[in-house]
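Please, structure for the following, as tokens.
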Amino acid sequence: MYAMIVPVSIVIVVLIMFFSIFPVRLWIAARAAGVNISIINLVGMKLRKVRPALIINPMIKATKGGLKVSINKLEAHYLAGGNVDRLVNALIAAQRAEIPLEFERAAAIDLAGRNVLEAVQMSVQPKVIETPVIAAIAKDGIELKAKARVTVRANIDRLVGGAGENTVIARVGEGIVTTVGSAISHKDVLENPDAISKTVLNKGLDSGTAFEILSIDIADVDVGRNVGAQLQIDQAEADKRIAQAKAEEKRAMAIAQEQEMKAAVQEMRAKVIEAEAQVPIAIADAFRNGKLGVMDYYNIRNVQADTSMRESISGKSTGGKE
């Protein structure tokens, strides 16, 4: 009994090792689908660290779809980091839609990081890209907020190296700003919103992009702020502040000049007081030297009294104001 179990166990282990090394089920499925591949090729894929199912299953799909694709190309695409299954699906979809798409072009699109299947589907069924709200100001200073829907179709020939959706949205926004900004009145834009679409389409915004713009439809246009009036208000406020600053500067200069004049008057008064203080000294010196007599002194006093009286009368006639 024991002698029978050992050979059976060895056979089972050998079979398990055989089926783990040689994917017989996958080989049978491939041969049944008409894919000409040998067991040795499948083993070679495993040695190259390629999962045979990721190559054989898409190859079966391609064969059933009527595509002429070699296993070596599919394996090379897989080793380059591409998505083999998505590539084959894109080639089958392109063939059914009668879109000329070669294997090398599809592989390049896939390796460039773009979804080649989605691109083929977009070539058949165009995609609608909705832009965010774009604000623009007409010449009369009124702000308009517009939203557009851009219908695009994938351009297979420009998918590699072509700009994406963000570029299309940016260019459409630039066209809307240009169109609204060139309008004399915001009412003209509100009356004919299709003028924006025509102007933007005529600019050839899809140049250098991976898309072909089919139509641009203005979904919504709203009136925003009166930017022109606000700018005028801000300018008037700025002018007012400038005028106030200049007036304050002139006032400060006038006050400074007045202070200088007062200082000059005070200095003159001090000199006059100093000069008047020297008069009695000069008169006394003249008496001592015999240069001034008593009658001369009385005449001087009379002149001083007459002068004081005239100043008093002059002050009363002017109301006491200097």
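The first strand starts at residue 127 and ends at 130. The longest helix spans residues 227-289.
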